[in-house]
Amino acid sequence: MHRRITVFTLQVLRNPPIIPSQKNPFYSQFIPFARGANELASFRFFSFSPVHRRVPDPDDPANLMKEDGVSVCSQMWIENFREPDRLVSNLTSYLRRFELWVLAYQKICADEIGSYVPRSSITRSALDDLLALRNAVLDNRFKWGARLDFFIKSPKDKTDYESLSKRKIKAILTTTQPASFQDKLVQEVLFMILEPIYEARFSHKSFAFRPGRNAHTVLRVIRRNFAGYLWYIKGDLSVILDGLKVGLVISALMRDVRDKKIIDLIKLALVTPVITSPVDGEEKKKKKKRKYQKKKVLAEDEPKPDPYWLETFFGFAPEEAEKLPSWGHCGILSPLLANICLDELDRWMEGKIKDFYCPSKSDVIWNSPEGEAEQGNTSWPEFVPTSGPDKTRKMDYTLWRSYLIGIRGPRADAATLRKQLIEFCDQKYMIKLDNDSLPIEHITKGIMFLDHVLCRRVVYPTLRYTATGGKIISEKGVGTLLSVTASLKQCIKQFRKLNFLKGDREPDPQPCFRMFHATQAHTNAQMNKFLSTMVEWYRYADNRKKVVNFCSYIIRGSLAKLYAAKYKLRSRAKVYKIGARNLSRPLKERKGQSPEYQNLLRMGLAESIDGLQYTRMSLIPEADYTPFPSNWKPDHEKALIEYIRLDDPKTLEEQRSCICEQGLVSPQDYISMLVWNYKRNAIVMDQLSLVKSAINSTKGDHENYDTEIKDEEVSEEGLHASQI
């Protein structure tokens, strides 16, 4: 307040005409300023001595939250995507930002208690503990894997560790325990700092553990880019990731990040041993009689367990999805560190792809010298010719928790590449691989990847062209189509693992006793959600209708057996007779057969039961053959690149010149707009210089006061931004 009064007093002294005259009706309100008025009042007003402001407490968490954590993260993403190749050396400044710690606390609390915690709902004690954790990390007092001494605890952890008995303390210190709440917080903060740095650097052929990319993205890339490849090399990444040493991980991290505190934190997380319980396989657990368990009532802050349909779908996860790296106390940092280490393999493969490419003029698809701009789409329904003495030699590569290499050429080329890959892994990762871990398979045998089979269909299209003299010639050609089909054998295996069926040749559905105590409406709703998820999972499979129809048959048969046992109907035939084909009629007390129920249902007086979906093959949607763009990027990267492009002053100037060239704005209007901007800038600069000179002139009289006016000052950079 005193800064505003000081400036206002200076303006009054320099501009006396602003003092109202006696003719002014508001003269009585400004008596202290009128000429000839009481000089003592004027002296008291101008000799106003402001009270010193209270210095903000640096230990107060409220004073440290100047911005929103999401805006800080967004700025980090923009900076790294604007300059993706720069060497990062100062990340401790982001580690000090308390907004990131608050955002990490909100995310971890959402996982712990199952609901989002707004920033205004965080208690003062939690903020103080969070600040203590941040200071401990900055002062090198934080230790990974603490069991009893915590800086901050989970909101649902009510344990008093000081009053625990020795037996419980020993059990905590010697048995396997989940990661502590404070470890997850530090992992989340480090992840938010490092992820934007490396996401701007990773290869576009890597899809594992990255935002905006999933298994469907990999299947679409394979459908588009891997058509016409004869030989395939499939490798397991777990062999590489499990054998990596700490020194190799740190050296890969230090290629782009040179912040000592961040490096030391991650190195300490990798080196600190994880305490696990000894597993004794010889001791057999005695079978205990199953006691009656009361129905569990969840607490207010306790997250709800996953519904049954979601647990069932998680059981269908492919083998590649189960390979999740976990290194030391890194937690969610482990997948990111794995991608950082595998980035060298991605870059090496990209170089091999360029060196291996040898185009052929006789090829319809691949005849460009660069190998990137293709003449046609290699996916369905076009074909890639395989006949002819002069074939194109080409190779491609993709990575999603296991890498897949496709080669178009002789098998000797595939064997040479495998030998070079083994040498590269030996030199870079110090891991000995053999030929058995990198098998070379032909496309005719079928390549299993993500529970889908990659195979080849041979087609014989008729090629018609006009020869010399206008004669139309028809010839039989030979081509191949890449077929991506869902593995029915793998689907049966997953159903058997979930106890939905037994037998291989003639699968027999088994009753789903997990839903025995649920109502018919709830059971049908759960299975409908499961079937909808399965339809989405097999979205890009050529045999989508067939495999979803099989899943629907198994689920429907399992529920029919369950209802037959629950309502004592003895057979599935009676269940279908009463409850209809889709089990939409009530089976309790055989209401589905009564005409009264049909009348009540017609009048809307009875509750309807949703029947099972996809009971007929005609109801199942077709496979999705939407073309996949060659330069595909996830939505968040598109938004970042577009924002950076629009934020560039050159883009604005190009748009202005383009508008003038197209005649949308006349040159006179364009010149007048520039003149107006120049005049406005000159006026603002004059005002800025006047304020600065006023502040400099009052420094002698107010040496002990804070006379900076940060809110009113306009910087030249802000002026340039406002002009844009």
Task: Give a written overview of the molecule.
One of its GO terms (cellular component) is mitochondrion. Residues 484-589 form the Domain X domain. This is Zuotin. The protein is α+β, with helices and mostly antiparallel strands and 724 residues long. Among the domains are: 58-159 and 176-201, no CATH class; 204-245 and 304-366 and 381-485, no CATH class; 488-619, no CATH class; 648-678, no CATH class. Helices cover 44% and strands 8% of the residues. The chain has helices at 2-14, 39-46, 61-64, 69-82, 92-96, 98-113, 124-138, 166-174, 181-199, 215-225, 237-242, 246-253, 260-271, 308-314, 333-356, 411-428, 488-497, 520-537, 544-566, 572-579, 595-603, 635-647, 649-661, 667-697, 716-723; strands spanning 231-236, 384-385, 394-399, 402-408, 440-442, 447-449, 452-459, 462-466, 472-476, 479-486, 501-502, 508-509. The strands form 4 sheets. It has a 4-stranded antiparallel sheet with strand order 3-4-1-5, with helices on both faces. It has a 4-stranded antiparallel sheet with strand order 2-10-7-6. A two-stranded antiparallel sheet has the order 8-9. Strand 6 and strand 7 form a beta hairpin. Helix 12 crosses helix 15. The relative contact order is 0.08. Mean pLDDT is 79; it is low at 1-52, 280-287, 371-382 and 698-724.
